[in-house]
Amino acid sequence: MIDVRIIDLSLRHPGGAEALANVSLDIPAGQFCAVLGASGAGKSTLLRVLAEITAPSTGSMLYCGAPSDTALRRRIGLIPQDFALCGRASVARNVMAVADIALWRSFIGLYPQSERARAARLLAALGLEETHLARRADSLSGGQQQRVAIARALLHRPAIILADEPVSSLDPATGEATLALLRNEARDLGATLICSLHQPDLARRFADRIILLDAGRIVFDGTPAKFDGDITRPRLLAVGQ
Ligand SMILES: Nc1ncnc2c1ncn2[C@@H]1O[C@H](COP(=O)(O)OP(=O)(O)OP(=O)(O)O)[C@@H](O)[C@H]1O
Question: Where is the ABC transporter domain (predicted)?
Answer without folding.
Answer: 4-240
